[in-house]
Amino acid sequence: MLGECGMKERDKLALKKNSVALCREMVVDELLIQFLQADDVLTEGMAETILAEPTSHKRSWRLLSLLPKRGPRAFESFCIALRETEQQHLCSLLIRFRDRESTPTESEGEISLTQDSTPAKNRKDQKRFPDPTLPLPTQECAVPAKRARTHESMEMCLDADSPVTTAVLPCTPEFYMSHSAQAYSMSSSPRGLALVVSNVRFEPELSELDIRRGGEVDEEVLRRLFTELDFTVSLHKDLTVQAMRDRIEQFARRPEHAVYDCCAVCLLSHGVEGSIYGTDGQLLELDWVFERFDNARCPLLQNKPKMFFIQACRGEEMDSGVDQLDGDDRAEPTDCEQRDAGREEKSARQNETREQRDSERLRVKLPQRSDMICGFATLKGFSTAAMRNTKKGSWFIQELNAAVRQRARDTHLSDILVQVNARIKEREGYAPGSAHHRCKEMSEFTSSLCKDLYLFPKYCPNN
After folding, report:
1. With contact defined as beta carbons under 8 Å apart, do 235 and 219 qualify?
2. Structural contact between residues 202 and 209, judged by C-beta atoms closer than 8 angstroms
3. Kind plus residue range of the DSSP H or E element containing 287
4. 225 with 404: CB under 8 angstroms?
5. What are the tens digits of pLDDT across the range 94-111?
6. Do 72 and 10 touch, CB atoms closer than 8 A?
7. Which residues are catalytic?
8. Of residues 76, 88, 69, the one with CA closest to residue 123
9. Cβ neighbours around 31 below 10 Å, total
């Protein structure tokens, strides 16, 4: 199966000399591992060992340590897998290095991999792994997506140009040292937990909602993005409202939040003002979702940033005080704080004995909700549609993915979402012959962050 001889020396050298770049930039996820398993490069046990590693860097290192022992075809199969998982830049890096070391000959039966070529011995894989550079058939919506019974607007299926996915650019140690003091702590590995709920296919007997063609692209884009950002990602597809509630509540209660620095929640579905649809046609209120992560119900995430990305409109928030979990006792209030409390209260406190003051010190309190940031595909209150490319996913997720990958290395999340707004503002629908040709969309975000939220991608100060 793997042949009698091992990997060629020049292929081993290409992996060894580029191992630092590969470990820093490569995304080793289930899809890449499945490609290598399908090509008989990795066994099931090897795949489980790799995916069990806790960080992206360690998964990459484990894979690179196994490949040289997996036979003469392992290098070419690895390059094909990189291409198929949209990591063409790493494939090109390896091929260029190998070809500089030694020019392949026909007698070796090898052909260098390029954007438009495949090794002759792997031509049989072309059916199984189609070339992603070839144009895919455009699947236009013959009619706009069906309206919900509430007559609120739904997502529209549009095809237009979209950015190409590249690796997340790494943060430098120098940038971390100069910006970490004024930012949320972001040093744990994994950074945090990420939940992606994606509803693409809806139950026809229970709802009038169309399939969200292209929605499956969004869920994979987000899964890969947060995996590369060193999050532990949970992806759940096509859930009823009750199933969504169960998954969200389970996620909010996970004990790992205590040791991780942040969390992310992505909800992708049809929606109306303040709610999103389950596959059963019922509505889940976004306000209920935010409540699961507030300072009262999710104490393990107090004072930690909570990110939300939603293909829907928003609900209103209310604020009431709640004691901070394990909050430090407050010292004597300052004069300013005493004035804020009122003159009568100040006078009463002055008459208390020290023992009474000690026994009645107030714990530090937090607002009901804080340290949240939420990006929305459309504006609140305008009932506008969220645009979706049937081949490449929704506009908002496309631009979010591109902006985070390019700018997270040196830009905090609020500014990244401003850049997403700017890109969405420039986009225009392409659906000739339909009412949605040259249509527009405008995204926005809300924030109760209290510090800069830098993700510091691919940098772990504890190492």
Report:
1. yes
2. yes
3. helix 286-292
4. yes
5. 988 888 866 544 333 333
6. no
7. 270, 313
8. 76
9. 15
Tell me which amino acid residue 433 is: G
Q: What is the DSSP string of 94-124?
A: HHHHHHHH----GGGT-----TT---GGGTT
Tokens 């645009």 belong to 387
The angle at the Cα of 274, spanning 372 to 246, to the nearest 5 degrees, equals 70
Q: How far is CA 300 from the centre of its chain?
A: 21
Q: How many CB atoms sit inside 10 A of residue 355's CB? A: 8
**Cα separations in angstroms, 77 against 38, 106, 232, 385:** 10, 19, 27, 42
Global pTM exceeds 0.85 = no
DSSP string, 153-216: ---EEE----PPP-PPPPPPHHHHHHHGGGB-----SS-EEEEEEE-----TTT--PPP-TTHH
Q: Which helix (H) or strand (E) holds 361?
A: none
Q: Give the C-alpha separation, 232 to 229, whole Å.
A: 9
Contact between 252 and 288 under an 8 Å Cβ cutoff? The reply is no
Which pair of tokens denotes residue 368? 């009901």
Alpha carbon 326 to its chain's center: 31
Query: Which two tokens mark 18?
Result: 């580029």
E runs forming strands in 218-261: 231-237
Question: What does the pLDDT look like over 255-290, one tens digit per residue?
Answer: 999 999 999 999 999 888 888 999 999 999 999 999
| The residue count for the chain | 463
Q: What does DSSP say about strands 192-198 and 231-237: parallel, antiparallel, or unpaired? A: parallel
Residue whose structure tokens are 């979402």: 417
Q: How far apart are CA 173 and CA 182, in angstroms?
A: 16
